[in-house]
Amino acid sequence: MHLALSQFCDVQFSRFSRFLKREKCLCFHCGESMRKDRALMATFQQQQHPVCCHGCLAVLHAIEKNHLVQDYLRSKVDSQQGKDGA
Ligand SMILES: [Zn+2]
């Protein structure tokens, strides 16, 4: 049952991923718009996030390494709230 479901998901995902290749996404660090197939994946807080370049990847690594995650996330939320007005 679990196997059948995962096979079904694989088929759906491969169809979907072809569609996604032309999709855009936003860099987790700087918010730059980029093509999804060009995105680099950064591991941050045990999760994968898309980033636009090795510079942003390095920044995220440096933040984790220097234990600045809480400060970073707080400043991110502040700036997002400023932009959206939410
Ligand atoms: Zn970036």
Comma- or semicolon-separated keywords:
86 residues; alpha+beta; two-stranded antiparallel sheet; 3 helices; 4 strands; 19% strand; binds zinc ion; ATPase-cat-bd; Heavy metal translocating P-type ATPase metal-binding domain-containing protein
What's the structural blueprint in terms of helices and strands?
Elements: H1 2-20, E1 24-26, E2 33-35, E3 40-44, E4 47-51, H2 54-65, H3 69-84
Antiparallel strand pairs: 1-2, 3-4
The structure holds zinc ion.
Zinc ion binds near residues 30, 32, 51 and 53.
Q: Could you describe the 3D structure shown?
A:
It comes from Undibacterium danionis. It holds the Pfam family ATPase-cat_bd. Residues 27-77 form the Putative metal-binding domain. This is Heavy metal translocating P-type ATPase metal-binding domain-containing protein. With 86 residues, the protein is of the alpha+beta class. The protein has one domain (24-84). 55% of the residues lie in helices and 19% in strands. It is built from 3 helices and 4 strands. It has a two-stranded antiparallel ribbon. It has a two-stranded antiparallel sheet with strand order 3-4. The radius of gyration is 16 Å and the shape is elongated. The protein binds zinc ion (ZN). Residues 27, 29-30, 32, 51-53, 56 line the site of zinc ion (ZN).
